[in-house]
Amino acid sequence: MTYALGAASQAKLVGVHPHLAKVVRRAIQITKQDFTVTEGLRTKARQTYLVQTGKSKTMNSRHITGHAVDLAPVVGGKISWDWDHFWPIVTAMEAAAKELGVPLESGARWKSFPDGPHFQLTWAGYPK
Fold this sequence. Notes:
Helices cover 36% and strands 17% of the residues. The chain is α+β, with helices and mostly antiparallel strands.
């Protein structure tokens, strides 16, 4: 089955670096797991709130500059937070990034603070 990004997901890619948006758009075409974009570009106020509530650890987030997105699996028409549903998205995002030559980091692979929904352009490939 081929999936497509809905209007809400497309809207959340506004302000996201075009290379990362292209990776997301390619990943939805090749994924085995439907997904939605939950966040793209963030304001500093939003990031402050996420740090204060423990949902983020840094004010140096790549979301603030449009270099990160959060994606969530959609199962039965609803977002699932089951980790098993994130891995096919990680696989698709990494494959799309490789295909397009875009250096990408998957938060699901972080050791100190695993973040399944998070994908960002690497600092080395895309400094501020």
